[in-house]
Automatic annotation (TrEMBL):
Keyword vocabulary terms for this entry: DNA-directed RNA polymerase, Nucleus, Transcription
InterPro entries, per database record: NA-bd_OB-fold, RNA_pol_Rpb7-like_N_sf, Rpb7-like, Rpb7-like_N, S1_domain
UniProt-annotated location(s): Nucleus
Domain S1 motif per the UniProt entry, residue ranges: 109-191
CDD domains to which the protein is assigned, alphabetical: RNAP_II_Rpb7_N, S1_RNAPII_Rpb7
Protein family: Belongs to the eukaryotic RPB7/RPC8 RNA polymerase subunit family.
GO terms classed as biological process: positive regulation of nuclear-transcribed mRNA poly(A) tail shortening; positive regulation of translational initiation; transcription initiation at RNA polymerase II promoter
Protein's name according to its UniProt entry: DNA-directed RNA polymerase subunit
GO cellular component: P-body; RNA polymerase II, core complex
Main location: nucleus
Length: 201
């Protein structure tokens, strides 16, 4: 017979609706405040007066910074709404707790304009990071007046008059033209071929 092992959750706080207002350039919203579920598996050595805090800490450790193709990157857990009765795993002694929580997730979509940091520059294009997500900009999606200069230190894309130079660690504004969604990751393709895109001064 499967037994249940419950813990009190009276200290759980209600969700904060204010975090829904986060915006990015281009009047797009890539941050969402959503309800999620996760199961925490605990060893019997954790059973005791600090059980509730242990479940909370394991939730933070196991979900923050992770990514699912459906919801995106989990940036931060904001509230824990409910910790259900734990189910003792037969033959092991471990207890599995179902947890319902709310979190800020980062999920960009095609067509959104975002700021990114350049991490690598080479002849094929620019590699950038948009928070936790990687984004590649092909040289064919960089304005034709900007050419790759391999002899520059560091290598860069620049205009003939060097009025605009894009190199590693620069902040640029790009448009997401496509995303590839895997089970545990999201990768984006970007473009600088539009008005108001490029180096952020």
């Amino acid at each position: 017979m499967v037994k249940e092992f419950a813990i009190s959750s009276t200290s759980l706080k209600p969700a904060d609706p204010d975090v829904l207002s986060t915006k990015q350039p281009g009047n797009s919203n890539m941050f969402y405040h959503i309800s999620l579920e996760h199961e925490i598996l605990l060893h019997p050595r954790y059973f005791g007066p600090n059980l509730l805090n242990t479940v909370k800490q394991k939730l933070f450790t196991e979900v923050e910074g992770t990514c699912t193709g459906k919801y995106g990157f989990v940036i931060a857990v904001t509230t824990i709404d409910n910790i259900g009765a734990g189910t003792i795993q037969q033959g092991r002694g471990f207890v599995l707790y179902p947890v319902k929580y709310r979190a800020i997730v980062f999920r960009p979509f095609k067509g959104e304009v975002v700021d990114a940091v350049v991490t690598q520059v080479n002849k094929v294009g620019l590699f950038t990071e948009i928070g936790p997500m990687s984004c590649f900009i092909s040289r064919h999606s960089i304005p034709s007046e900007m050419e790759f200069d391999p002899n520059s230190n560091p290598p860069c894309y620049k205009t003939v008059d060097e009025d605009i130079v894009i190199q590693q660690d620069d902040e640029i504004r790009l448009k997401i033209v496509g995303t590839r969604v895997d089970k545990n990751d999201i990768f984006a393709i970007g473009s600088l071929m539009d008005d108001f895109l490029g180096l952020v001064s």
